[in-house]
Amino acid sequence: MARWTAPNQRELFKGADPEVLRLFKWHLGEEVEHKSTVFNILRLVKGRKRIQILASMITVFLTAFFVLLSTSIMLTYQKRIFNPVAWFRLIKWGFSFAFEMIPTLVISTFPSFHPTDLVDPISARLWLEEIEYEEILLQQEMVEV
User: Fold this and answer.
1) Which of 47, 56, 86, 91 has a C-alpha 20 to 30 A away from that of 71?
2) Among 55, 78, 58, 54, which residue's Cα sits nearest to residue 66?
3) Residues 2, 124: contact at Cβ < 8 Å?
4) What is the mean pLDDT of the chain?
5) Residue 85 pLDDT greater than 90, yes or no
6) Is residue 96 within 8 Å of residue 9, measured between CB atoms?
7) What does the buried/exposed string (b/e) look like for 44-57 if buried means 16 or more CB atoms within 10 Å of the residue's CB?
8) DSSP secondary-structure letter at 16?
9) Beta-carbon contacts of residue 48 (< 8 Å; ≥ 6 apart)
10) Is the pTM above the cut of 0.85?
11) How far is 131 from 108, CA to CA, in rounded Å?
12) Hey, where are the domains in the chain?
């Protein structure tokens, strides 16, 4: 998700609630840092490829379901549920995300694959550094008060 978000962040983050955006950036940055964790655990499981493929399919389905559900709820709350522009953007981002994610999922089934082979988006490190900097400033403000 971070690899897709990085080049699209200007459009995705525009007008976002700062606290929600901060949490989202932190989560993406942490996911990039820990991208090998589940992979390394699955290496120890017999029949790993079948489990990995099944887990990937379930994850994709659940993610798509909850994104669609939460987006529908937000659009209803904002009274934009029937706004064609909102749905156009959702469909556009969905296809864009799928074209980033599906090849990565396919490559991840190759025997020689390891998550460290994937190039991390530069933005992921910057997101975490931005949050660390904000926390330092917040701590300094608390000490001054």
Assistant:
1) 56
2) 58
3) yes
4) 87
5) yes
6) no
7) eeeeeeeebeeebe
8) -
9) 42
10) no
11) 30
12) 22-144
